[in-house]
């Protein structure tokens, strides 16, 4: 039995994985879908303004502590690739597997801002113009999305190298959407023997468009 900790990307909460969770549970696994600080319905403006990448990594580590999880499979979508990398680097061996689901795979000193494309940097800047600290969700999409803490997109990650000791590391590339910022990342990881690279012909929100395919990848032993 595996223990999956699912971490959503920008603007989303644990509900983003609602179609995948029952598939993993029905297969006999434990599943935790997190909502990060600043993205929770009750979070006030001060909480959103002060939440950064460290805050979000601490959310994951605190969850591991509270639930006594010692062999986690961390799954991060999009921005949350930053989060699961930071958490795994600090988890002291409690992470058995990382799955970056169409997500950033940062190197030390990178941020979501530095690792993404000009298109998304422009989106972040325009989205934060009203408050200076929260990036409004892009137009369209699920109405449950919330403004995302800008500081979490901007903060550079600090990695000790411990994340490279996670036994199994995987990247899922979703090829079915225009403007993906992950094309060069896929090429980099495809040439790295320490990584497994998977391709899905879906849009960015693969867990919503193709939950069975995402679950199949996660259940692949």
Description:
With 221 residues, the chain is α/β, with parallel strands linked by helices. It has one domain (3-219): 3-Layer(aba) Sandwich (Rossmann fold). The protein has helices spanning 21-26, 45-50, 53-66, 80-90, 112-115, 118-127, 150-154, 183-190, 206-209, 211-219, and strands at 3-7, 30-33, 72-77, 95-101, 134-135, 148-149, 168-174, 196-200. A 6-stranded parallel β-sheet has the order 2-1-3-4-7-8, with helices on both faces. Strand 7 (168-174), helix 8 and strand 8 (196-200) form a beta-alpha-beta unit. Helix 3 crosses helix 4. The longest helix is centred in the first third of the chain and has 14 residues, at 53-66. It is globular. The chain starts with a strand and ends with a helix.
Low-pLDDT windows of residues: none
Shape: globular
Q: Outline the biggest β-sheet.
A: 6 strands, parallel
Q: Averaged pLDDT, please?
A: 97
Span between termini: 11 Å
* CATH topology grouping: Rossmann fold
Helix count, per DSSP?
10
The strand order across the widest sheet is: 2-1-3-4-7-8
Q: CATH H-level name... which superfamily?
A: Alpha/Beta hydrolase fold, catalytic domain
Order of helix and strand elements from N to C terminus:
EHEHHEHEHHEEHEHEHH
Helix content: 25-40%
The proportion of strand residues reads 15-25%
- How many β strands by DSSP? 8
Structural class: alpha/beta
* The level-1 CATH class: Alpha Beta
Radius of gyration in whole Å, from Cα?
16 Å
Q: How many discrete domains?
A: 1
């Amino acid at each position: 039995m595996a223990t999956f900790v699912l971490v959503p990307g920008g603007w989303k909460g644990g509900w983003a994985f609602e179609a995948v969770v029952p598939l993993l549970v029905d297969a006999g696994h434990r599943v935790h879908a997190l909502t990060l600080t600043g993205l929770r319905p009750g979070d006030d403006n001060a909480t959103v303004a002060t939440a950064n990448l460290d805050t979000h990594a601490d959310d994951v580590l605190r969850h591991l502590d509270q639930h006594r999880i010692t062999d986690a499979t961390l799954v991060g979508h999009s921005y949350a690739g930053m989060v699961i990398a930071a958490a795994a680097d600090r988890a002291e061996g409690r992470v058995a597997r990382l799955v970056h689901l169409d997500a950033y795979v940062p190197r030390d000193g990178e941020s979501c801002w530095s690792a993404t494309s000009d298109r998304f940097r422009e989106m972040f800047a325009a989205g934060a113009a009203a408050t200076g600290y929260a990036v409004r969700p892009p137009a369209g999409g699920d109405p449950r999305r919330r403004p995302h803490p800008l500081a979490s997109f901007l903060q550079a990650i600090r990695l000790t190298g411990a994340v490279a000791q996670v036994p199994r590391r995987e990247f899922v590339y979703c090829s079915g959407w225009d403007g993906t910022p992950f094309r060069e990342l896929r090429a980099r990881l495809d040439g790295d023997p320490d990584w497994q690279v998977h391709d899905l012909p879906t849009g960015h929100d693969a867990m919503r468009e193709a939950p069975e395919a995402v679950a199949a990848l996660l259940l692949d032993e």
